[in-house]
Amino acid sequence: MCGIVGYIGKENCVNFLVEGLKRLEYRGYDSSGICVLNEKKLSCYKKTGKIVNMESTLPSEVIGKSGIGHTRWATHGEVTDANAHPHLSANGKFAIVHNGIIENYQVLREKLIADGFEFKSTSDSEVIAMLLEKNFSGNFEKAFYQTLSLLEGTYGIVAVFADEPDYLMVGRKGSPLVLGIGDGCTFVASDVSAFLGHTKQAVYLEDNEICKIYADSFITTDFTLEKKQKEIATIEWDAIELDKKDYQHFMLKEIFEQPESVARAYAGRILADIGTAKLGGLNMEPRELAAVDNIGIIACGTSYHAGLVGSYLLEELARLQTVVHIASEIRYKNPILRRNSLQFAVSQSGETIDTLLAMREFQRKGGKVLGVCNVVGSSIARESDGGVYVHSGPEVAVASTKAFTSQLTVFLLFSILMGRMRDMSQYRGVQLIEDLQQIPQKMESILKKSEQIAEIAKKYAGLNNFLFLGRGISYPVVMEAALKLKEVSYVHSEGYAAGEIKHGPIALVDKNTPVVFVVPQDHLHDKMVSNIQEVKARGGRLIAVCNEGDEKIRSLVEDVIEVPKTEPLFSPLLTILPLQLMSYYVAKELGCDIDQPRNLAKSVTVE
Ligand code: M6R
User: What is the best residue among 27, 193, 300 to mutate for testing ligand 1's pocket, by most ligand atoms within 8 Å of CB?
Assistant: First the structure.
C-alpha cells in the first residue's frame, strides 16, 4: 500500500517521478504528490485523486535533479491534499515520503507540538519530517538515523534535505524498497516497475537497513551503522510487459495472458517421461521431502483461494494432509507446528504483510516455509527457506487473475512431485503431465468465448446479489469467482459450498438472484444436479459453467458457458476463466474503475 519513488542524478527528475508513480498507482490511488530539490529549495505539489490530478497541477517549468514522490492509500488521516505525501518539516527544509504505519505517532506528535512544531496534516507520517528537523544538528544522515530510532511500526521512507542536494536517505522496516542503479543516477521505489524503463539493475533493501544514495553510488548500513554488502540483481521483467497493449484494461490483458503464463509456470519443471516434476528452488533433498507428512499453506485473498485448491490437489494426489490458513488469522492464533510439516507462503506480490508476518511466526517456531511468489526478490521470496516462482509476469490490475492460475499450476507440480514420491504410479504421473500440457490450448478455446460471456454479463449486470456454488475442488473456484465479482464491480456476491446452501444461503434465492454453478464432470456431478434443481425450484436465475456437451446441465439452466473436459482435478484452471471474464464484463457494464477498484490496493503492506 502506498507507492514511493525517488531519484538523484543529472537529469530533471519530474517526468520520472510522475511516470514512476503512475506505474505504482496500483499500490494506492487516493492522492499523490512529488517534491523536487532545485538550488537548495524544495518545491512540493500534492493533490487528492488519481496521479493525473496531481500532474495537472504541476507548473510547466518544474526542475529538480533529485526528488521524491508518493501515491497514497490512506490509513491515518482522511483523503485530503494536506494528508497526501510528501510531508515537509516546519522549516520547509526536509521532505519525506512514507509507506507503512507509525504506531507511536500520537506520542511523538504531542511532544513535537509541545516543542512548538505546527502540523499541517492529520497523517501519522508528518512526524517523520518534523523529527528530522528537530534532530538535525548539522548532519542530515545522523538526523535520519536518530529519527528512525524513535519510530515504532513499519516503514519505507525516503527523505531529502534542501541543504544537502548530493544524497537522499532511505530506510526500510516492514515496507519494501528497492534501488535502481542507472547510468549516472540512482532510483529508489517501492517496486521495480517504477524504474524498469530506465534500468534493470536493482538492489533490494532488507528490513532494518538504511541507505545513503548518491547519483553514482550508495552506502547501506544497519541501524548500528555497520556497513552491509549489497548484491546488484538483474530484473527479468521487461518494461513492455507493463503496457496495456491493445487491451482496454490490464485485467482483460492479464486474463488473456493465462495460456502463456500457465505454460511458463510449468516450463522446464516437468519430467514428462517419468511423470513427475522438478522444482529446484525448494532447497530440499529428496530424503527431506520424503519425510514430510503434512502441509500448511498461508495466504490472503486470491492467493488463499489458490492455496485451498492446492489442498485438494495435495490431499488427492499426494495423500498429504493439508491445512490452509488465512494469514491475518493464523498469525494471532499461536499456530501449532506439527512435526514433519512443511509450510507454503503464497503471495503474488510477495509483500503482503500478514502473509509475511505469519511466515516469520512459523519460522520462529522452527518451521520450514517455502514461498510461492510472483515478484522476484520480494520480501517473502527472500525471507522464505526456498520456494517456487510462479512466473506470471507483472500483474498490474488490482484484481488478481493470471497469478491465480499460475499458483494453481505450481501446486499441481508440487502435488505430482510429492505424489510420485509416495503412492502415485509412473503411469498416472505421465498422464497427469500430459493433461497439464493441454491446459494452455484449452484455455485459448475458452477465451474465444469472451463475446458470449460478455453478453451473459450484460444480461445480469443490473442485479444486486450473486451466488456462486460449487463442490469439491470447485468450491474454492466459486469463492474466487465471488471475490473477483465483488472487488471489480462492487456487486454483492457469495461463493458457497453447494452442499451448504440448504443450511442457510438458499433463503437468499429469489427471481432476482443469479446463481452460478461450477459443475465439471467429476464424481460430484450428480450432487450438483440436485443442488441446481433445488435452486431452480425456488425461482433463481441459473447460470452454469460446465463441460462441453453436458446436455443434462444445459437442460436445467438459463445460460451455459462450456469449458473443455480435462482431468477433473485440473478443472479449476479452466472453470475460473469464464468467471474472471464475467466479473470483468459486469464491471465494465456498470462503468466501474476496473483496474483500480475503489478502496483497494494491489499490495497490502499494512495490517
Ligand atoms: O500479493 P498477494 O497475493 O499476497 O495478495 C493477496 C491479496 O491481497 C490479493 O489476492 C487480493 O485479494 C486481490 N485483490 C484479489 O484479486
Answer: 300
